Amino acid sequence: MSEWTPDARELADLELLLSGAYAPLNGFLASADVAEVIEHGRLADGTPWPDPITIALPDDIPVGARVTLSDPEGAAVAVMTVRERDGHHAAGPVEALDAPAYGPFARLRRTPEDVRKELPDGEILAVTMRGPLDSATLDDIAATAEELEAGVLLLPLVFGEGGPAVVRAALKASAALPGSSVVAVPLAPREDVEIDLELREHVARNYGATEHYAGPAPVVIPGPPHRRGLVVFFTGLSGSGKSTIARGLRDALLERGGRAVTYLDGDVVRRLLSAGLTFSREDRDHNIRRIGFVAAEVARHGGLAICAPIAPYAETREEVRAMAEEVGADFLLVHVSTPLEECERRDRKGLYARARAGLIPEFTGVSDPYEVPEDADLTLDTTGMSVDRAVSAVLNLLTSGGWIR
Fold first, then answer.
1. CA 400 to centroid of chain Cα atoms
2. CB–CB of 210/124 below 8 Å?
3. DSSP state of 225
4. What b/e sequence results for 130-140 when a residue is b if at least 16 CB atoms lie within 10 Å of its CB, and e otherwise?
5. Which of 9, 83, 140, 149 is the most exposed place for a label (fewest CB within 10 A)?
6. Same domain, 158 and 253
7. What confidence tens digit (pLDDT) does each residue in 270-320 have?
8. Is 88 among the domain residues?
9. What domain range includes position 75?
10. Which residue(s) pair with 155 in the sheet?
11. Number of domains into which the chain is organized
């Protein structure tokens, strides 16, 4: 049986499928009309449409396979039987293996069936929330509930880093709405506003609501850049000068003070965090993801992480950017674009000579490609450029963006 760890959005949908919050659905979808699915509980014929309740599986997992779905810590949560594939998206029913491992406010993550048993008879006004409710909204909810003679069920939609804050907001709102109750629901937001609203209403009905009130979208006011986490990610060929500039940046920031700085050099990480990995594409991607994970954890807590791997592949660099942004941090990509000829001329370690002789397989720039970034925030060719000048260019970027003062 194959094994797979879905991403955060897919795990949230899996929890809702297993709990019955997405009933009558009992599995993931590949191609469907969402209105047909919600109304009839079945896939609709017609043009394939990327439904919001999907899971992406590796291409080598065929139709008919049974796949164990695990959480990020490796605990098996469910088994999925693949019934249909639409590109990367797979469809099929899921069977629970174990209850999901909940984080903060675990006591409030309850199934629709359990919640419905405890609701009072009569009308129920469910309020789905993605952020705090201001006093005007609370007054409107209270007036609506009074007019309907309805009980109030607050459903904070917990997903991602902001989940606990939304629950705290719901508990605060509940104190201002006598007799109301709170249930945490892991419904990930959708980019399409209409689909997002339809899913919220559908989930609310399954929790026993007769009426639905969609709380307003939260107004996010990020802190100033110098207080936010930041990942400065250098990429470039071996010998391009990226590690030298990164170390110079670290030193300059430590001299200035005011920010907690962590430096993750590619060679150092390989000896420690990624010991045992080869230089195959798969292992190089693993190495970059590990660097990205550590950098994102540093940035999660407001730190400034400096990374300097080769990172030759655009897709993996984009994954690292997403890791940083998912924890609310900023990400800057610095492409050290020193030409291959200059990198070979420097070649202090003799790596290029060994690669040209066929002694190092899959060597970036010689026998393996380097995908030039199209989204770099700064590009530096260090040919004839002093280290101080290169470091100053990066410092100017950080200063102009407000990340350092």
1. 27
2. yes
3. G
4. bbbbeeebbee
5. 149
6. no
7. 777 777 777 788 888 889 999 999 999 999 999 999 999 999 999 999 999
8. yes
9. 2-96
10. 128
11. 3
